[in-house]
Structure formats: structure tokens, C-alpha cells
Design brief:
seven-stranded antiparallel β-sheet; Heat Shock Protein 90; 14 strands; 8 helices; Helix Hairpins; 487 residues; alpha+beta
Length: 487
């Protein structure tokens, strides 16, 4: 079964079937036990009535037995001989003996004419001449099931056995039965109703489960169809329908739309990246080709320094694009511990061709000295510092400053400040986008390809840090790189 609806309907039906079957068996067992106990109680009442008469030495042939057709009675002595039976009893089973013909022994009790013993007195110590009394066993009677044939009709009975002792010390056992026809009829009626009602109820459960599941999964089918249409059309601007409910399906639809939004943004960003990269690569390649063609035709006109500059520019752009591709692919930086203060000094010392000298401020003493250790890729962090310094050199008028210090939450902050025109507040996030150059930096020769700040922010984010820009007190721009401490 590949359908969720079919599996849900089958599972619900099986669970309900098992539950109803167990409940039905329990009801039948309880009903049968209660009705059987009632029949046993009736049989016990009859047996005790007969036992009470035997304890009073009532002769066997004068025993009063009520409802003899519904309550057959059999009386046996200690040797198992039958001494009395109810009227019209023709056969019996389940009482220990199947004989129904009375065979009283001489020592079994009173005579047929009801006379007392020869001296007309009993064994009572008082000598008062009153009849003697026996006793009825007060213990719980013994119960059992059997059959009896009364007046030609055979039926099942519940038998109760009660013991009685006559005044002469003779112990007799009275077996009295109560019919089980009512119990059998009631159990049969309930069982038949269950056998008829259970399949009908299971069909209702299966149908209701199918319909409810189908209705619940209808939004899922709508989501599937829309996703199939998006896949076929490759139109990522489309969205799946969101149901108005607040259940799991609604959350699934919202999550799907959020995923489509992120995917659309990623694809659009990738398209812009490819287009911008192609545009940026076209100029240096075309310039280099032109110079080489001119040099090939007129060697004396070859601009070797210009060709070298275009080649260097092309190499730097290719390196930037390769780094961005690795960052987009999810490349994780190394976790090498390094001193950010020492890295800043090293990078600044290597910048011998800058038009403005860079001022470095790294505490060598005091509480913050030696607390600038971070974990990450030395090469990538050096690239970030170089990009920030290149940006500051490009826009500064007369001063570029780099400072390193402890920051909040145990981090390290590197601030690169220039005294240039600064960055307008509305442009402070846009400058971190790829291939973005502000109006005063559109010249490719001076402003670069617009990838430096984008690379710097991406590398900072990969290291668990952040890169922001704010206004400097000198009036220029202040870029702040925050990185978590190595500890």
C-alpha cells in the first residue's frame, strides 16, 4: 500500500478491530460469569432448603422440592448411593453419580411413616421427648456444571452441592441444579449482535478514517502539484498554497515557501555573480589581448608595464572569484590559534608601496596586552585585513589607522579608520554586496572590482565574527572586525 490514506485507514481499522474484539470477549466473559453465578445462587438456595429438611429428619419421600422441573435435586449418602431424587428426573450428570433411582439404606434416616425410634424418644440429653435436630454444613457449597433430563427434556444446569447431617449422624449431600438456558441465550444473543455489528462498525471506521485522512492530506497534494509545476517550469517565483489552519501541514507549506524564497535569492545572486564576473573579466582580458596583438604587429609599440598591470589585475580578480566560490561552497576555515595583533603588524609592515603610511595601535603592555588570540585561517584573516587596508588607502585623504583591542564577550576587535569622505548611512550595508562600487569609486583602476568588502564580510562570518562600518570621529569611515577569542 503506497497510499497514506490506505495505510491510515487499515491501521485504524486493525486497531479498532483488536480493541473491539478484546472488549467483546471481556463483555461475554463477564456476562457469562455473572449469569452463571446467579444460576449457582439459585441452585444453592434450593440445595440448602432440601438440606434443612434432611437436618430435621424429614423422610426422603416427603421432602418438599420447589420448581422440580427447573431445579432437579439428587440426594446421596456418604457411600454415593442415591437416597432421594426430584420428581420426573430421568438422567443426570455432573454430580458425581448418574443414578436417579433412590436406594435408601437402613441407616439413612426416617422411615416412610415418619415414626420415631422404638422407644419413642430421641437422643436429646434433655429427655424432653422432642424430635432431634441435625445440621446443615455452613461452608461454601461446591459448584459444577452438568446436564439433567427432566420429563424428557435434557438441558444444561449449574449444580450446587450442600452437605447436611441428620440427628442420627448420617451425612447426606444434596445436589440441586439451576438451568443455564437463560445464560446461554443471553450470551448467544450478545455474541450474535457483536458478530453482526463488528464488521459494520469496522466498515464505518475505515470509511471515516479514509475520508478524514483524505481531507487532511488534500493541502499536501496541492503542495506536491505546485512543486511539480515549479520543477517543470523552473519558475522559482511561484509559491505553494498555504492553508489557513495552524497545523503541521500549514507549517510545512510556510517552510516550503521560505525555502523557495531562499533558493530564488540564491539563484538570483548566482546569476548576478556570473554576469558581474563576466563583465569584470572582459575588460582586463580585452585590454591584455589588444596590447598583445599590437605588440605582435609592432613590437616597438608593446606596452609591457600595461600588460603586466592588466595581468596582475586579472590574477587578483581570479583569486577573488575563486575565494568567493569556496566560501559559497561552505568551506570551513582552519582552527589555528594566532595572535591578531601580530598579524596586523605583519600585514602593515609588508605594505611598502602605500601612498599613506598606516598607523598601528596594538597595546604592548597593560591589562589588554597579549589578549588578542583568535582561532581561524591565517591566510583568510590576512586577506580581510589587506582588503580593509586597501579600501582605506583608496578613500583616505591623509591618515589611515589600525587599532587592535579587547571587545565584548571575550572577543577581539580590529578597527580600520580613514579620514576620507565616509560612507553614507543608507549605503553602509550595500557596500558589502558583491561588485558594488559607490559613485566616487566607479573607476575600475582606482575602485577595484567591488569584491574586497564582500569577501571580508563573508570570511568574518565564516569565523563566527562580524564586520560593520560606522562613521569615524575624523569624519571618514571606521570598519570594525569582531572575532571571538580563541578561548
Amino acid at each position: 500500500m503506497r497510499s497514506v490514506r490506505a495505510r491510515a485507514a487499515l491501521g485504524a481499522t486493525v486497531v479498532v478491530a483488536l480493541a473491539l474484539t478484546a472488549a467483546g470477549l471481556a463483555v461475554l466473559l463477564v456476562l457469562r460469569a455473572n449469569l452463571t453465578d446467579q444460576a449457582g445462587l439459585q441452585a444453592e438456595v434450593v440445595a440448602r432448603e432440601v438440606a434443612g429438611q434432611l437436618a430435621l429428619d424429614v423422610p426422603y419421600d416427603r421432602l418438599e422440592m420447589r420448581d422440580e422441573e427447573d431445579h432437579p435435586v439428587q440426594v446421596t449418602d456418604e457411600d454415593g448411593r442415591v437416597v432421594a431424587v426430584s420428581k420426573d428426573l430421568r438422567a443426570i450428570s455432573g454430580t458425581g453419580t448418574d443414578r436417579v433411582t433412590p436406594d435408601p439404606s437402613p441407616a439413612a434416616g426416617g422411615s416412610a411413616d415418619g415414626d420415631d425410634d422404638d422407644n419413642g424418644t430421641d437422643d436429646d440429653d434433655s429427655g424432653s421427648g422432642t424430635p432431634g435436630r441435625g445440621e446443615v454444613d455452613s461452608d461454601e457449597p461446591h459448584f459444577g456444571n452438568g446436564t439433567a433430563t427432566v420429563d424428557g427434556d435434557t438441558a444444561d444446569y449449574r449444580f450446587a452441592s450442600v452437605r447436611a447431617t441428620t440427628s442420627t449422624g448420617v451425612t447426606l449431600t444434596v445436589h440441586a441444579g439451576a438451568p443455564l438456558a437463560a445464560e446461554q441465550e443471553a450470551v448467544g444473543t450478545v455474541r450474535g449482535a457483536m458478530l453482526i455489528g463488528l464488521p459494520a462498525l469496522l466498515l464505518v471506521v475505515a470509511g471515516v478514517t479514509w475520508l478524514v485522512t483524505r481531507r487532511a492530506l488534500r493541502p499536501v497534494e496541492g503542495i506536491r502539484r505546485e512543486m511539480a509545476a515549479i520543477t517543470a517550469s523552473e519558475d522559482l517565483s511561484r509559491r505553494v498554497p498555504e492553508p489557513g489552519s495552524r497545523d503541521e501541514i500549514a507549517r510545512l507549506a510556510r517552510t516550503t515557501n521560505e525555502t523557495l524564497t531562499a533558493l530564488e535569492a540564491s539563484v538570483e545572486r548566482q546569476r548576478r555573480f556570473v554576469a558581474d564576473a563576466s563583465h569584470e573579466l572582459r575588460s582586463p582580458i580585452a585590454s591584455l589581448r589588444t596590447q598583445l596583438e599590437v605588440g605582435a604587429a609592432h613590437p616597438e609599440l608593446l606596452d609591457v608595464p600595461g600588460a603586466v598591470a592588466d595581468t596582475v589585475r586579472l590574477q587578483a580578480l581570479a583569486a577573488d572569484l575563486l575565494l568567493l566560490a569556496r566560501l559559497d561552497a561552505g568551506e570551513r576555515p582552519g582552527r589555528t590559534a594566532l595572535d591578531l595583533g601580530a598579524l596586523v603588524r605583519e600585514e602593515v609592515s609588508q605594505r611598502t608601496g602605500d601612498r599613506i603610511a598606516v598607523t598601528v595601535s596594538v597595546p604592548d603592555s597593560g591589562p589588554d596586552a597579549g589578549r588578542f588570540e583568535v582561532a581561524g585561517s591565517r591566510g583568510q584573516l590576512a586577506r580581510v585585513l589587506g582588503n580593509l587596508l586597501d579600501n582605506a588607502e583608496r578613500h583616505a585623504r591623509s591618515a589611515v589607522t589600525v587599532s587592535v583591542g579587547a571587545a565584548e564577550r571575550g572577543g577581539v576587535a580590529v578597527a580600520v579608520t580613514d579620514d576620507g569622505a565616509g560612507v553614507p548611512p543608507e549605503e553602509r550595508e550595500r557596500i558589502f554586496e558583491r561588485f558594488v562600487r559607490l559613485d566616487d569609486a566607479r573607476a575600475r583602476d582606482d575602485g577595484g572590482a567591488g569584491l574586497g568588502l564582500a569577501i571580508a564580510r563573508d570570511v568574518a562570518a565564516r569565523h563566527g565574527g562580524r564586520l560593520t562600518v560606522e562613521a569615524a570621529r575624523e569624519g571618514g569611515a571606521r570598519f570594525v572586525l569582531w572575532l571571538p577569542g580563541a578561548g
